[in-house]
Structures are given as structure tokens and as C-alpha cells.
């Protein structure tokens, strides 16, 4: 198991440490519900240093990214971030990721911790262009500072104006005395805020500064459990649950990051274009349970007669809405809002209905 | 981590308080609630049923996990703590009192002797 540079802070703060994606990570500090609420109403900090970072550089950098990415990275400009996935050549997804354009020949890909080796191999295999690929995952730390008060805290630590930055934009800033911190208006919670990237050596300095600046706003450390409930309330996909090597981006509702720009050849382009034009047999949907119970990954989705029509990929009791929510794949003809479905929970069929995501609307 | 004297315990992290000759109150321990985290759902649909020790009498769900709960002794499930249907977090707040889960009318009170003493339970959880 690897440790992030901040493991001792998590232990001191009473974090419950669990193995996750090869790292010892805090799953919870005070309790998932209070942590969840802190991010929805105030400001919370996640150590997400387990995430992977890969630099793609050189004159051929964009060519490689365009070939492996579902999205159109040519639309990026310096200081712009884009969400995308790597189609896997078999109609599935290798990983989902963010791509940052630093300049025309320098891009940063931020990938899931559980997929670092897989993604790296995938990029190298497909690098017929000769782009430079460098895995900086073990050198870079990342914090997600999230919540409606997050940017007020962050602004106290930099002279660069950051409070009016646009969603999915970033800047390199001098932050808490540390140079060249990448500050991006992104996150996985739906409550606003930013994510910052910096060298491991600066992690302690930055962590302390953020908590000191955030004290007057009631800032708290947040664990992975609340990260999951927050993202699920927004209907954001989690790799390994809602998307994986067997789900296509079209099925997963990620058509908006699958761009068939003329002249952009990319892995699975023809297959995905066919899915887009002809439709798919199953789709990822959100649902709320009408009866009491909690949906969990891999529970069956059934019709009223008990015939299986799909499978749950994520589920939880929503801390904000106080109702059980989930996501899962269902046959396409049933994937409409308000359709009545049933979730098989320990041999019982519990009534549920399909709803549009996000579940949480702020 | 509180382990109360005068209670009996199980390896499944349940506690029992003898209420009368053949009735016991059952809940989960402070340690168990802390390991589970925020409890969001408690389901007991066995009220009135006769169950053997070790049989599942219900389930308890935290945000990230679902766990079965087992009969610590044989007998009839007399009562389920209705407070938990609307306020399952009561277990997090007060595992040994307000957060009790069921009452059992024991068919064989001798089974109590097979349960863990507070000392043995403390050893089990390393307290």
C-alpha cells in the first residue's frame, strides 16, 4: 500500500484509514453525513493525491490525445480543462479522465488511481505518434477544496483573482507561498470549489495553510465515503461502478464527451458513431427507491413480474435528500423518467422509479 | 470505546441486557456502530417469529455497507425498536440505551452462559 504525503495529518485528525486503489486513504473522519453536509453548505477538503497524473508533451502530444480520447481536445486552449474517456477498442472504457492544456505542446491527464498502470500501458501502446509520455503520479499531490465557501478560503491564499474563474478553467498560481500550483475550477461534488495540484514536498505546507485559512469558515477534512455520496447525488459516473471495460460511453450517457468531429480519428469512432445513430440496447439511468431499503452495486433491476431488466451500478442513502438513490443499466425501452422499476434487495422486490439526474439540484 | 459491565456480548458485536427471567434486550455495541459509521437503515421483519441462535433476524445498513444481524440466543422476536424506522442514527448516538434493536423471549436462557463477558469482548476488540 502506498501513502499520500498527507497520511499523518489524516491519522492525527482521526481519519479511519482503509486501503483504496493501492493507497491507504481516509474513508471517513467525523462521519459521512456531517462531512457530506459540510461540503454542500460550507467547505471541505479531500486529499485526492491517489489520483494519477500523466504528462503528454511534444509536437505530437495533441495527436496522441485526439486518438485515444473520446472528446475533442483540439477545442482546448491554454488554461482550459476537458472531461473525456478512453474508449478501449472493444466498445468499452479504459478510464475516464480530465485533460488540462498547459500550452499547445504540454497536456496533463488526470486519471483514476486504480487505473494508473493500465492507462499508462494503453497510452504507450497507442503512441504511434511519438508523443512524450511521463507518469508523474508519485510526485504530485492533489487536494479538492469543495463547497460554496471553498473559493473564499482559496482566495485568501493567493494574490491571483480566482473567485470569478470559469468552470473547467485553470491557472498556475502562487498558493500559500508555493509557486506554480495548478488551480482548476473542477470537482466531483457539484457544490463548487476547486482542485489544486502541487509537488509532494509542498503538501504539508499547503494542507496547513488551507486549514488555517478555512478555520473561520468551519473547514473540515472529508473522507472517501462522502466523496462517493456527493458524486452519486450528482449522477457523476464512478469508474469501476457505473462505467468500465464493458460499458460504452454512449450507454453511460457520456455522449456529450464523445465528439465525432470531422477529421478526428479515434479509437472506436465507427462503433460509437453507430451506437449514437442507431441507439443502444441499454442505458445508464438514475432511480429513487419508493419503498424502504438501500440499493447496492450488483443488485438486480427487475420488472413487476420479477424478470431482470438491468443491474445496479451504484447506490446509497442520499444524505441531502434522505431517500435511497442509485444508478444502473436498464433496457433502453424502459430508460425513461418516471418508469416504475423494482430493485431486488435480499430476495424482495422494492418499488423504484427512474428519475433524471442530478438527484441533488442544489 | 465503551464496553459496558453487566451486559453480555457476542462475536458479532451485539450486546444483550437481561430484562427479566427470559427476556433480553439486544443491540449492537459502541465498537460496531463506530466501525459501521452513519447508520441509515435498520430492517427487522421477524417480529413474532421463533428463531434459532445464529439465524438472521434483520439487517443494518450504513452509508457504505449492509450487514446482517444474528440472533444471539434462540427465542421469539418480541419487539423491534420502532424509533429506528424513522431515526436509525439513534444507534450511532446511543448504542446501549435508546438505540436498542430487538427484545427476545428466550427459549433457553442457559444459552446466555455461552456469550462473551465484558472482559472477553474487550479482548476481542482490543479495547
Global structural class of chain B:
alpha+beta
**Rough shape of chain B?**
globular
Name of the CATH class of the largest domain in chain A? Alpha Beta
Query: Could you spell the SSE succession of chain B in H and E letters?
Result: EEEHEEEEEHHEH
Overall shape of chain A: globular
CATH homology-level superfamily of the largest domain in chain A: Probable tRNA modification gtpase trme, domain 1
Assign the CATH class of chain B: Mainly Beta
CATH topology of chain B: OB fold (Dihydrolipoamide Acetyltransferase, E2P)
Key attributes of the depicted protein:
heterodimer, A: alpha+beta, Gyrase A, domain 2, Alpha-Beta Plaits, Elongation Factor Tu (Ef-tu), domain 3, 3 domains, 6-stranded mixed β-sheet, 20% helix, B: 127 residues, alpha+beta, 6-stranded antiparallel β-sheet, globular
Task: Report on the architecture of this protein.
The complex is a heterodimer of chains A (362) and B (127). Chain A is built from 8 helices and 20 strands. Chain A is an alpha+beta fold and 362 residues long. Chain A has 3 domains: 2-51 and 139-233, Gyrase A, domain 2 (2-Layer Sandwich); 52-135, Aminomethyltransferase beta-barrel domains (Alpha-Beta Plaits, 2-Layer Sandwich); 281-362, Elongation Factor Tu (Ef-tu), domain 3, CATH 2.40.30. In chain A, the strands form 4 sheets. Chain A has a 6-stranded mixed sheet. Chain A has a 6-stranded antiparallel beta barrel with strand order 15-18-17-16-19-20. In chain A, strands 6-7-8-5-9 form a 5-stranded antiparallel sheet. The longest helix of chain A is centred in the middle third of the chain and has 12 residues, at 203-214. The relative contact order of chain A is 0.15. The mean pLDDT of chain A is 97. By secondary structure, chain B is α+β, with helices and mostly antiparallel strands. Helix content of chain B is 18%, strand content 34%. Chain B has 4 helices and 9 strands; from the N terminus they run E-E-E-H-E-E-E-E-E-H-H-E-H. Chain B has helices spanning 30-36, 83-86, 90-93, 118-125; strands at 8-9, 14-18, 23-28, 39-43, 50-51, 56-62, 66-70, 75-80, 102-106. In chain B, a hairpin with a 4-residue loop joins strand 2 (14-18) and strand 3. The longest helix of chain B has 8 residues, at 118-125. Chain B is globular and about 35 Å long. The relative contact order of chain B is 0.26. Chain A binds chain B through residues 16, 27-28, 31-33, 225, 228-229, 292-294, 296, 316-317, 319, 324, 346, and chain B through 37-38, 40-41, 43, 59, 61, 63-64, 66, 85, 89, 92.
Amino acid at each position: 500500500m502506498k501513502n499520500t504525503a498527507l497520511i499523518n495529518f489524516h491519522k492525527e485528525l482521526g481519519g479511519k484509514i482503509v486501503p483504496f486503489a493501492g493507497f491507504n486513504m481516509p474513508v471517513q473522519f467525523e462521519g459521512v453525513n456531517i462531512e457530506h453536509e459540510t461540503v454542500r453548505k460550507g467547505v471541505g477538503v479531500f486529499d485526492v493525491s491517489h489520483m494519477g497524473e500523466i504528462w503528454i508533451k511534444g509536437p505530437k502530444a495533441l495527436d496522441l490525445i485526439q486518438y485515444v480520447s473520446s472528446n475533442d481536445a483540439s477545442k482546448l486552449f491554454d488554461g482550459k480543462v476537458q472531461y473525456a474517456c478512453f474508449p478501449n477498442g472493444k466498445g468499452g472504457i479504459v478510464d475516464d479522465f480530465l485533460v488540462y492544456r498547459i500550452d499547445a505542446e504540454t497536456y496533463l491527464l488526470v486519471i483514476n488511481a486504480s487505473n494508473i498502470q493500465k492507462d499508462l500501458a494503453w497510452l504507450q501502446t497507442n503512441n504511434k505518434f511519438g508523443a512524450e509520455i511521463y507518469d508523474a503520479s508519485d510526485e504530485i499531490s492533489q487536494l479538492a477544496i469543495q463547497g460554496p465557501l471553498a473559493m473564499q478560503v482559496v482566495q485568501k491564499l493567493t494574490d491571483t483573482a480566482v473567485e470569478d474563474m470559469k468552470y473547467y478553467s485553470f491557472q498556475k498560481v502562487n498558493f500559500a507561498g508555493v509557486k506554480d500550483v495548478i488551480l482548476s475550477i473542477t470537482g466531483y461534488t457539484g457544490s463548487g470549489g476547486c482542485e489544486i495540484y502541487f509537488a509532494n514536498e509542498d503538501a504539508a505546507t499547503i494542507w496547513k495553510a488551507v486549514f488555517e485559512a478555512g478555520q473561520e469558515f468551519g473547514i473540515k477534512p472529508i473522507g472517501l465515503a462522502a466523496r462517493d455520496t456527493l458524486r452519486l447525488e450528482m449522477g457523476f459516473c464512478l469508474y469501476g461502478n457505473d462505467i468500465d471495460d464493458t460499458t460504452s460511453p454512449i450507454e453511460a450517457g457520456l455522449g456529450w464527451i464523445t465528439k465525432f468531429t470531422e477529421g478526428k480519428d479515434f479509437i472506436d469512432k465507427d462503433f460509437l458513431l453507430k451506437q449514437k445513430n442507431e441507439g443502444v440496447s441499454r442505458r445508464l439511468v438514475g432511480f429513487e427507491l419508493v419503498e424502504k431499503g438501500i440499493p447496492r452495486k450488483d443488485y438486480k433491476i427487475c420488472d413487476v413480474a420479477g424478470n431482470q431488466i438491468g443491474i445496479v451500478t451504484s447506490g446509497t442513502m442520499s444524505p441531502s435528500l434522505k431517500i435511497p438513490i442509485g444508478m444502473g443499466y436498464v433496457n433502453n425501452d424502459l430508460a425513461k423518467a418516471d418508469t416504475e422499476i423494482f430493485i431486488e434487495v435480499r430476495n424482495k422486490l422494492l418499488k423504484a422509479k427512474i428519475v433524471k439526474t442530478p438527484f441533488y439540484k442544489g | 470505546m465503551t464496553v459496558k459491565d453487566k451486559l453480555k456480548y457476542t462475536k458479532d458485536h451485539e450486546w444483550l441486557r437481561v430484562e427479566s427471567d427470559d427476556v433480553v434486550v439486544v443491540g449492537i455495541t459502541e465498537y460496531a456502530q463506530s466501525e459501521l459509521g452513519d447508520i441509515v437503515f435498520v430492517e427487522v421483519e421477524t417480529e413474532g417469529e421463533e428463531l434459532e441462535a445464529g439465524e438472521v433476524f434483520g439487517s443494518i445498513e450504513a452509508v457504505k455497507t449492509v450487514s446482517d444481524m444474528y440472533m444471539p440466543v434462540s427465542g421469539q422476536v418480541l419487539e423491534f425498536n420502532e424509533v429506528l424506522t424513522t431515526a436509525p442514527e439513534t444507534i450511532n448516538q446511543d448504542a446501549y440505551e435508546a438505540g436498542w434493536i430487538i427484545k427476545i423471549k428466550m427459549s433457553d436462557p442457559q444459552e446466555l452462559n455461552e456469550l462473551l463477558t465484558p472482559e472477553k469482548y474487550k479482548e476481542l476488540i482490543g479495547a
